[in-house]
């Protein structure tokens, strides 16, 4: 009986990669960064998928927690709805402050892209000269700019010119990714 079930299941497994449920998705974002009226190129622009982070986090936790605490920690983490974005692509602005960041890949569900801009325009650090933290500006990419095709981006979301002097109310300070920016 078990060999028969395995034979019936194998075509399903082998056809997974060509399943119509898996779609090829593309997103592209461009913009220009300025600080003090001049082009700002000392930044890092990262494109994240804000949707799948929660699913991936659960998988990583379930694989990582293999100690005696597994039975006590897993229920706690499994019920948390943490949204940890997954990095899709990364770039740095050119000398003119212009950037373009793009990603193409396959997913079972539609991605929810966000662009994080890590910068130190008007950021006073407490520890010098080590660069530890950075200001972070997050911009949600509208779903209309997530293209479902295999030909690459044909619609670019232009965020325009972003003045990094402005302290936005939804801006954060990041000391994890911020440490890796230039």
Automatic annotation (TrEMBL):
It comes from Ancylostoma ceylanicum. Residues 1-15 form the signal peptide. This is Transthyretin-like family protein. Keywords: Secreted, Signal. Pfam families: TTR-52 (PF01060). It comes from the Eukaryota. It is found in: Secreted. InterPro entries: Transthyretin-like, Transthyretin-like_sf. PANTHER family: TRANSTHYRETIN-LIKE FAMILY PROTEIN-RELATED.
């Amino acid at each position: 009986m078990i060999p028969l079930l395995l034979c019936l299941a194998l075509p399903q497994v082998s056809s997974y990669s060509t399943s119509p449920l898996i779609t090829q998705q593309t997103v592209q974002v461009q913009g220009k960064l300025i600080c003090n009226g001049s082009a700002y190129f000392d930044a890092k622009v990262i494109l994240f998928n804000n949707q799948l982070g929660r699913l991936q986090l659960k998988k990583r936790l379930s694989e990582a927690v293999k100690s005696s605490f597994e039975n006590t920690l897993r229920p706690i983490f499994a019920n948390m709805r943490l949204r940890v974005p997954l990095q899709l692509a990364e770039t740095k602005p050119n000398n003119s402050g212009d950037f373009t960041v793009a990603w193409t890949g396959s997913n079972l569900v539609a991605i929810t892209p966000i662009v994080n801009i890590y910068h130190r325009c008007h950021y006073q650090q407490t520890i010098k000269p080590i660069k530890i933290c950075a200001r972070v500006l997050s911009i949600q990419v509208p779903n209309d700019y997530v293209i479902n095709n295999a030909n690459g981006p044909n619609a670019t979301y232009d965020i325009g010119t972003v003045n990094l002097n402005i302290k936005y109310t939804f801006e954060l300070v990041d000391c994890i990714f911020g440490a890796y920016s230039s």
